[in-house]
Amino acid sequence: MANWIVLLVSFACINLSLSVRELEYSTPQSCKDLKQRFNINQDGLYYLSSPTGVVYQTYCDMTTAGGGWTLVASVHENNLYGKCTTGDRWSSQQGGSPNVPDGDGSWSNTVTFGNAEAATSDDFKNPGYYDITAENVAVWHVPNNERVGRWKLTSFLRYHTESKFLRSYGGNLYNLFKQFPVKYNAGSCPANHGPSVPVVYDVGDASFNHKLFGPHVRGETEPGFITFRAINHEKAAMAICLGVKPKGCNTEHSCIGGGGHFPEASPRQCGDFASFDWDGYGTNAGWSASKQVTEAAVLIFYR
């Protein structure tokens, strides 16, 4: 905590003598900016500013693969038995309905929620999600309810892209999902999946990643990728497939952040972790994911 307090006080002292234009430039707008311009190299919570002057707190990973990674979101399943209910902010809190095909629309709107320090206990989205212009993403899997100082220690899977793919999609996921809406009936499988991007593992590896999902899922996916806007057999859309590229169309078992309607067995197939429990909660059998990945928050970073 002390690191960002000292930093904020330093900015306040420096900024007293600056014009408005200079003030906007002096305030870091990403963790990469913070690292490069202010030589900050310690992981932790810091204050950033959006281009419009909104100040917000988030976590900066300043050491992995060169550092400068900004936490912009987390997806946390608070109740796998309560599909598309309160707390499922990335899919729908209103239930699954064909009349609300994109659910809460969080992947492509500017609504923010949660706070950085509680990102493993609740869903989180800050202004950086739509305001930062980035090139790559990183994903951490951290057990639910871990304190921020233990995230790195307890994360069991971490991976990032290196291809600068976001340059082709408007510089962030907000713009990517404008092109590939997470919305029921926005396309068909497999023709209308979004991009699949190779990842580099910082913790874990492709084999371990694959085994977090059930054997049926492993038969239909290729590990070592992150995939955006995957569509299933019934034309329901999921936002992010976790370290895998779909080869089949049962994407609801390894992808998170579904849109507003899942035609098959709704509401059994709905919510932020749409159908990770199809063959039992945490069984890692059939189509079910392991308890380890089901009971972990997915933290999303930009750089």
From TrEMBL:
Gene3D superfamilies: Gamma Fibrinogen, chain A, domain 1 (3.90.215.10). The gene is LOC108260692. Keywords: Calcium, Disulfide bond, Lectin, Metal-binding, Signal. Residues 1-19 form the signal peptide. InterPro entries: Fibrinogen-like_C, Fibrinogen_a/b/g_C_1, Fibrinogen_a/b/g_C_dom. GO terms for cellular component: extracellular space. The keyword Hydrolase does not apply. It comes from the Eukaryota. PROSITE patterns: FIBRINOGEN_C_2 (PS51406). This is Intelectin. Residues 22-72 form the Fibrinogen C-terminal domain. It comes from Ictalurus punctatus (Channel catfish). GO terms for molecular function: metal ion binding; oligosaccharide binding.
